[in-house]
Amino acid sequence: MAHTDQxxxxxxxxxxxxxxIGLLTDEHDFSVMRRYRSFVFDDHSTYLRxxxxxxxxxxxRGGHTTLALFDPEDYAAFCAETGLDPEASASRARFTxxxxxxxxxxxxxxxxxxxxxxxxxxxxxxxxxxxxxxILLTRLGPCATCGEDIGRAAFxxxxxxxARMLDTAPPGDRHLVxxxxxPAETLVAVLHADQGAGDGTGLDEAEALEFTGVLALGxxxxxxxxxxxxxxxxxxxDRVHGWRLRGGDLVALSAAExxxxxxxxxxxxxLISPEPGVDYCAPPDLxxxxxxxxxxx
Length: 297
Prior knowledge:
Helix content is 45%, strand content 18%. By secondary structure, it is α+β, with helices and mostly antiparallel strands. The strands form two sheets. Strands 4, 5, 6, 7, 8 and 9 form a six-stranded mixed beta sheet that branches. Strands 1-2-3 form a three-stranded mixed beta sheet, sandwiched between helices. Strand 4 and strand 5 form a beta hairpin.
């Protein structure tokens, strides 16, 4: 009886252990990992099927599993820094454990891997965008005139502007996209806000930080860019509003300018038919900014 109780207790404890799987999401990363003799898979499709089978098995036993993005180059660098043998499965486990704490992850929720992989890749892109924007904002340093940290001031201003957009938007679920032409590449951030999220509820914190950071970078560096907000509410046409980033300011677009932006092919410049059930509108008045123009860096 005592042995049975011990086995039962161990099974209960196993269900309470959270696990992380470092996932090779594409063929290229998979092929790089095949240079290690201890990596026994030789086909990416088979590998993904085995991972999915393991995920289902753990879920059926009540276990919780997180998926992390496994980057072979980062793994090689990790082993070189720590002196670990990259051929050892224990080294991959230690690297995966670090990913669980610092890298992009998504929880396994029972959906097929084909549905989860895009979420994991999007999370990785989002984290990389946030880190890149943060680095650029930090490098701006203090203002030569007043000594204020330019990046921090821009982030505060961007936070205020995002809050004003959500507060003044028409009722409905809001989908915001901000793009900024950074020095090396164009950064794009997305923010979803459910109806009533003007006070911060219903917002994903990581998503909001990334979005605010990209907007702050555009403001601080006076880079060209734009911001679009789409508001959806049952029973009414979607409303689309837009702003232009120009000279460190956010300038509202007129209804005609929003229409032109949405109905023009970016690459060819040709006109595109307007989307049915969508109203292209001038954005609501955001009111007076908290930061006066003379203190904007």
